[in-house]
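Researcher: Good morning. I'm working through a list of sequences from a screen, and I'd like to move beyond sequence-only analysis. For each chain I'm collecting a predicted structure so we can compare shapes side by side. This is the next one on the list. No need for commentary yet; just the structure.
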Amino acid sequence: MALVAIVMFGGSDAYTVKARFQNAGQLVRGNQVQVGGRTVGHVKDIALTDSGDAEVTMQVDYKDVAPLHQGTAATIRATSLSGIANRYVSLAPGRSDAAEIADGGRIASDRASAPVDLDQLFNTLDPKTRRALQQVVQGSATWYGGRARQASQSAKYLAPALSTTSRLTQEVT
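Model: Good morning. Structure tokens for this chain:
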């Protein structure tokens, strides 16, 4: 019985790593940690530091991913646009020839980034600009009214342009 208890409830050999974000971006304990779209662990803890940053402790359960190396980047991402509380941490591992990040160690602060939510963006706009943006959205809805088929056809040509714009925006960011 004691052997079974030790095996089942004994200490974990899971690898943990921390990252400091300016904003935890609706991240909660238990959210996934992914590498290349594959779930490799979960968010173990989130704590507020003295400087007001969010320190996120992540547990990585896969030995082929752990230990991480210096240069690893951590980004909080949304799983979809349909909700605000469905977040995960995406890890982009550093080069395998770089120094290892020790168990319980930290991903460099300059390699951790949090999302900017739309409400944060809209809050930076003055009332006149917000109203103009509302008019653009409403005008687009009116213009596309009754033209669903044409809009659908144009979307297939818009996708390559958007992906190019996305790459450009990432470079600028």
